[in-house]
Structure formats: C-alpha cells, structure tokens
Amino acid sequence: MDRKRALIYPYDSESAFLLRFNHLNKVFNSVGVVSPRGWALVGKDAGTADGGGEIGLIVAKDFEEYNDKDYDAVVLVDSFKELDFEKIVYPKLELQVSKGKGIISLTKIESYHLKLLEDLCNSNNVSFQSFVDDKKPNMPKLTNILDIDVPVIFVLGLGDRTQKFNIQLSLWEGLKRLGYNVSQIGSKSYGSIFGFHSFPDFMLSDDISEQNKVILFNRMVKRIEINEKPDVIIIGVPGGIMAINKDIAQGFGIIPYMISQAVKADASILSIYYEEYSEDFFKEIELLAKYRFRATIDCFNLSNIKIDYAEVEQSKQMSYLMVDKAFIDDKKNKYKGVNKPFFNIFNENDQRDIVQYIVDVLSGEEAIEDVL
Amino acid sequence: MDIKDAFIHTFNTRQGYYLYDVNTNSILKIDKNLYEYINKRKNGSSEIKEDLEEKINKMRDQGFLSSKRVEKMEHSFSSLLPYVIKNRLSSITLQVTQQCNLRCEYCVYSGSYKNRIHDDKSMSFDIAKKGIDLLIENSSESNMINIGFYGGEPLLRPDFIMQCVEYAKEQAEGQNILFHMTTNGTLLKGKIADYMAENDVQILVSLDGPEEIHDKNRKFASNGKGTFKVIMENIAELKKKHPEYVKKNISFNAVLDGTTDFHCTTKFFCEYEDIKDFRINTASVSNQYSNKEIRMKESFYIDISYERFKFLLYKLGKLDKRYASKLYETEFAKSIVSINERKNYKSVSKKEHHGGPCVPGLNRLFMDTDGTFYPCERVSELSEHMKIGNIYDGFDLDKMDKILNIGRLTEDKCRNCWAYRFCYLCAAFADNIEGLSKEKKLSNCVRVRNDIEERMKNYCMMREMGYAFNDEAAYALEGEVL
Ligand code: SF4
Any idea where the Radical SAM core domain is (chain B) (predicted)? Predict the structure, then answer.
C-alpha cells in the first residue's frame, strides 16, 4: 500500500524520530515538517530539533512553503512545548482540510477539539485518522501473574526526553535485520504506525486500580506471546524510573514499577540524562533496578539532554538543556570505569552495536536452556 | 580520620548546639558536650575523650563528618556554554536609552558610581530587532522567553517599546513571551500605560518610601523637584483603568537608603492606602561599584533588625500580622525558607563551583544601546571583561567561562570554605573595572559567611520555637484534595 505523503506539525524534538525512522513507518511518509516560528527551528535542518545530527529536511514556518501537490496529509504530533489549539493549530488545519488534505493524529486531543476536527474533516470529505490507543479493557477476574517464556527486553529511562523511543526503534529494526521475530510494546501510544503495539491507554487510566493494571499488562504481553510467537519481546517503559529529587517526581517510577511486576525482564537498557555522574551513581542505580524492578541494567544510553536543576528549583517546571551528538560521543568514553557499556543512540555505530550487545546478553543466558 | 579534618562548621543558638556537615549539606543538632569537644579538637586540642569519640564514630558510620573537599572549582555548565547560547537563551534586557528624566543621588548613571554615566545614546530599532531575533533563534529549549526594557528611563521612548513588543510577538509565534520593564514611573500614563496593560508587561517601579524619603533621592532633572506625587497619580490612574493588570503585574522596588528613617519606610509600604497591596522588593544602596563608602545610620540598622524580629514573631504566631512588615516576606523566603529547602547530598563532588554565579546568557542577558552584551544589567558597562559579546560578532565564550567560573580565582580558599554551597558572590563582586580581582572578591567572604551562619541560626531557632516549615505547603492543597 502506498504511504500517504505527510507534513509533520507542530514539529520539534518530540517528533524527530518520525523522520529518523521514516523508513519503518507503515502509515505515512514524512516529507516535510512545519514548526511555529517562535520554536527556533524554522529554516534549520530538522535534525537540530533533537541534536541527533542532520536529517536533510529544512523546517518550514508554514504549510504554504510546500507545494500543494507534494503532500496528502498533515500529521498532528505531540510537542515539547504546548501550542494553543484554537488560536494557532485549528486555523492552520482548517486551511489544510479545505485544500483536501487528510489529518492523521498521533496526539491525544481533548474531546471538544476532537469533535471540532472530526466535523471539519467530515464536512470537507477528507479522512481523519487517530493512532492513539484508547481501547477500554475488561477487568480481570484473577490476580495471578502468568510467566512470559520468551526473552523480554526493557527500555527504561531516567525520565522523559531520554530518547527511549529511538532506542526501541533501533532495536526493532536491528533485531529484525538479524532475522529475529520481534514483538514490541512501544512507550508511546501510537506504536501501531510502525507495526508494533502502542503503550496501552489503560495503564494511564485514573479509573483502574494499580493491581488490575499489573494483571492487564501481564495478560496483554502473554497474548502477544501466544499470538505472535516472537523470539523476543521489547517493552518500552514510559516515564522515569524514580523521582530525581524533591522537585522532579518523574511519576515516582510508578509505571515502570507496575510493568516490572507484570513482566520480568531478561535484559534491560537504561537511558540517562547527560550529567557528569560519579561511578557510585551507577552502582546505586543498578541496585535500585535489581530490587525495585527485578531487573539487571545491562547497558546505559547517555542521552543528549541535561536537566537544568537550578531552573527547575526556581520555576517548579521541567527545564532542559540540549547538547549534540558529538559532545555525547566524547563524554560516554569517560565512563570506562563502570563495567557496563555506554551507548549514544544518535551515533550510527552505536545503533548497530547496542543491538548486537543485547543479543549477546540474551544468548549469554543459554548456559541454562530453560528455567521451568 | 581525625575530627580536626572534618568538613564542618559549628554554631549555636540560645537553645541548641549545631553542626553543619558540608558534605551532606545537613544541619545536625548535637549535645553541648560534644559541641564543645569538637570545637576544642578543631582548635588544636589533643585531649581525647573516649565516650565522645564513640559518638563521633557513630556519626561517621551514618555518613557524616567526611573530610572530603571539592578538588576543583568548576561550574557544571562550563563545557555546556556553547549549547546554552545555541538553545537555551531565555531573556534579553534592552537598554532602550541611557537618558533619564530624573537625577537620583545613588543612581549608577549619576556620577557616584564607576559603572556608568548618563549619556545621550539610545538604541536603534535595528539593534533591538537583532537582539530579539538572537533570543528567539536560540531559545528552542527554553520554556519561555523574557524581553525587558531598561534605561536610563525606558518610557522616554514609548514608540520604540511598542515597536519592539509588536515585533517580538510576530516573530515568536508559539513561544510564551513575558515582557518586563524597570521604570521610575513618572511617565507611566496615557497611551503607553494602556498599551502596557494590554500586553501584560510586568513593571517594576522604583519607589523608595513616603514622599519625604523618596523625594530625597529621586528628583526631576529639569527642576530638581521630587517625583513622588507624579508617580502616585500615575499608579492611581492605572489602577482605576486596569485594576486586574495592576494587581498582577506592578510591583515596587525600594532602594533602602541607610541614612533615612527605616521605620517610616516600612510603615508607608504596609499602611499607605494606594501602596499596601503591592509586592515590594527591597535593595540596599549598592556598594559594589560605588566611588564612596556607603554607611548606614545605627538607628536604621536597629530599626531593620527590630522589624525582622517582629516578622519572625508573626511567623511563629506570636504577633498579629498587622504588626509585621511585609518587606520581610521575600527576605524570609530567600534567607530562611531556602535553608529548609536545601537538598541533601552523599558528599561534595570532585568538581563543583560555589554558589553565586548565574550562567551568563542563560537567564539574564543585557544588551546596551550599541548592541554589546553583558551577563546582566547590574554589572559595569565600563568593565571590559563583563562584555561577553555583541550583536555583530556573537558571544565570547572565553569571557563567559571566566565569569561563570569566578571561583577559580579563589579556588584555594573556596575549596575549604564551609559556606561554599550558599555563597552568593558572582563575578560582579570581583570586578574592579581594571580586572577581576581576587582580593576584591575575598574582601566579601567574612560578610558572606556571617550572613549564612545567621541564616542557619535563624532557621534552627525557628525550628526550636516550633515553626513547622512545611505546613503552609501541606495545606495549600487542602481545597483540592481533602
Ligand atoms: S565566601 Fe569566599 S571563600 Fe567562601 S565560597 Fe564564597 S568566595 Fe569562596
């Protein structure tokens, strides 16, 4: 099936992976990106957004910069900064829909706005597709946990914006290339555009108890195991594994905790913010992973995002600084004393090496063929 | 390891004996015997008391009393400066004009200071535009951007300000912008005042106190008359027309002149009908770049201390609010609550910097009428090493690094300074116009350490008196959850 040619809006670091892994996207082909002028990306290479190296597309300030016949749809995405829907987003979409462009949504839209948008698309006879998972599960009756028999890989992060999704996509692609049959639950709610499972909406619901969430997640993974018969299951775990300090809660690590109770990982990757860590930090984090998440951290990814602690303390709002890929390449070599490898997922060699490393970790367990 | 080498500082209040453990950033209450023993040992006594040594060993087992020092004064943003200027600029303050319609005694432009003199220069719109563009272009990771108008007196050029605001709004689609301005308030009326309200511009008006105190220093250049009445009329008019805006966005900055009657000043800000509901920031007449030594009257100092004391009584519920001066609300938060909110650590890091310096360009950037950049509006424009770049050539990373890492200048002292986490000295304190001076910086250290010890003592005293620091925050949620 021909993929729709799409423009991404509003583009920033949070949607850069759509371009970096465009070749894996089954639903649309990202041919251009549009970003509000005030986000400081217009006129620059789209790779500036996440600091992960050039992509080869220049960020446009408006859809009008593209030729009408060069795209079929607009993809509405999550962004790091919020944008006023009624004042800024809707008028732009209205114009696009009137030109016959379809709308693809990868972001949760508030119901009132969603209705507005659906009506707009209907009355103009253009398609509106949402890939955000919002399935409502039935509540489980039993509370036991079922073992997952195939190897499971966790992709964990110290917090948001640590490029977990890029790691998941690299693993997905790399393992498939090596001939493995991979099943995957992505840490985002629209993994389905890449052909894998989205992170289920029920895990974020306020109406379901934690216990039921754990059971439901366990059953979801078990069914994937039964139906897809994978060689390996990758689970992208959203949010952060712990509160970083008194000001930075990162969800207190609750979602990772629930997932780790539902499924036991055989290998895990932890992506961390850029910081000059002491070696003790890694020892402690490994202990935390072991006792809180029943997981061994097999390797680290050093992301190119640093938390600006002073600003967070002052504004009580998350605040970051972004460095580039070369800077991280240099810094990751400084952790030779830690006896676990460090990767930079923006580095092409590392994208390949992390896959091989995880394969080695999992095959290392072959001394014991099975634990029954 | 000997207690002599522990990186600690001891102090006592009337009721308690304390040890500040620098490595963990903890304040430990200890008994008098131990306190005296530790002090004696630190002062060179070799007498060993087994029972107290046992207590000391226990404290060590709990992770306290380490002798670890920072090895190198280096700010964690040092190697990140290229990225700060690339994606985290968040503010620019434009020196709209160097002209002013007042001649204030202590104003940095009026001759008693080394950092500026009044000149006729004004910023061209082209330079302002370039400054705004630079900010927007390099702020992709900033949650919001601030654009400030500063002078001289910025309201001498209302059209220029409006032009800048319109330009920035147009260029920064999708970004939150906050405009702010520091003004003497004498021209805050008519069309420009309405425009400020329509654009939610945060305004800081300089007002030193009641008429006789304010007018002592703040006079019109044209006729030498005081400006108090004019400011009051302008504020009253603005309040009548835009009450909500005024409530949210106008605050006053009072420069406390130690030669005046403090009691009068505080009474004015707390009780004067048109003023009492506003936020007030206070600052002392600055000594930093002054040509003259600035002295405080003794009675002024006594009044300040007495008001501070009353404020603490009010916080403890022992004095009615109406007797407490709100001038201390901010000081209380900055000096005492901040001790409560300090973070704990396992130990000091190998590379760290003492508190004080802001990251140049990160939160404040000042651009003068010619387009030259300074780390903030408070530093001297005559000081070459404070010029961190300009609109034509960009930033000078070497100079920024020197300003950020001002601790290198005094590394030998700072490494062993128990107060380094709370230190508030930045490069401006080392700046003697000719260069960044180690001696000048160090001349402030005794005062800094005394201040910090005083803050810790007040904090401990408030705890001894039963002040529960976290209660207000706990109840802040009451309406929503309980
Ligand atoms: S008070 Fe002086 S010695 Fe102490 S950290 Fe500050 S500058 Fe260094």
Answer: 84-322
Chain A residues in contact with B351 by the CB 8 A cut-off are 276
Burial class (CB in 10 A: 0-12, 13-18, 19+), A145: middle
Ligand 1 pocket check for B425: Cβ under 6 Å: yes
| Among B138, B362, B363, beta carbon nearest to A40 | B138
The residue among B329 and A131 whose pLDDT is bigger is: A131
Please list the residues that pair with A32 across neighbouring strands: A7
DSSP letter assigned to residue B117: B
- Of B222, B186, B177, the closest CA to residue B205 belongs to B186
The model's pTM? 0.89
Tens-digit pLDDT profile for residues A301-354? 999 999 999 899 888 889 999 999 999 999 998 888 888 999 999 999 999 999
Which residue type does B95 have?
Answer: Q
Mean pLDDT, residues B453-482: 78
Q: Which two tokens stand for residue A172?
A: 């997905």
Give nearest CA residue, ligand 1 atom 1.
B445
Q: Can you tell me the distance from the alpha carbon of B124 to that of B108, in angstroms, rounded to the nearest whole number?
A: 23
Chain B contact for A40 (CB, 8 A cutoff): yes
Domain spanning B80-334, CATH architecture:
Alpha-Beta Barrel (3.20)
Chain B residues closer than 8 Å to A77 by CB: none
Q: How far apart are CA A125 and CA A41, in angstroms?
A: 33
Half-sphere exposure of A268 (CA within 13 A, CB side): 27
- Whole-number Cα distances in Å, B109 to A337, B101, B287, B434: 55, 12, 14, 19
Report ipTM for this prediction.
0.87
- Tell me the nearest-neighbour CA distance from B234 into chain A, angstroms: 32
Question: Which residue among A40, A245, A306 sits closest to B139, beta carbon to beta carbon?
Answer: A40
- Return the CATH number of A152-364, one of 3.40.50.300, 3.20.20.480, 3.20.20.140, 3.40.50.970: 3.40.50.300
The predicted-structure confidence for B389-422, as pLDDT tens digits, reads as follows 999 999 999 999 999 999 999 999 999 999 999 9
